[in-house]
């Protein structure tokens, strides 16, 4: 929030009258998209690669463990 916006919001909120701006409550997504940050070894440049949504993500882990899933 910018400085002027913060001053405006605080001024509007002060005194009686309750919450004056809408408060967002309808969060629909339960998972986040998995993003891999890959770094170049020579120039140290980062590139981001988005993968699908999933609740659990694990890189590596046990190769033959029961119940482990690699993406």
TrEMBL record:
PROSITE patterns: RIBOSOMAL_L44E. Residues 1-28 are annotated as: Disordered. GO terms for molecular function: structural constituent of ribosome. It comes from Zea mays (Maize). One of its GO terms (cellular component) is cytosolic large ribosomal subunit. This is 60S ribosomal protein L44. Keywords: Ribonucleoprotein, Ribosomal protein. One of its GO terms (biological process) is cytoplasmic translation. SUPFAM superfamilies: Zn-binding ribosomal proteins. The keyword Transport does not apply. Belongs to the eukaryotic ribosomal protein eL42 family. Residues 1-10 have a biased composition (Basic residues).
């Amino acid at each position: 929030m910018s400085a002027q916006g913060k001053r405006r919001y605080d001024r509007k909120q002060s005194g009686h009258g309750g919450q004056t701006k809408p408060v967002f409550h309808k969060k629909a997504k339960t998972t986040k998209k998995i993003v891999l940050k890959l770094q170049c070894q020579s120039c140290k440049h980062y590139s981001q690669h988005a993968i699908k949504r999933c609740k659990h993500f694990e890189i590596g882990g046990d190769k033959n463990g029961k119940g482990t899933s690699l993406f």
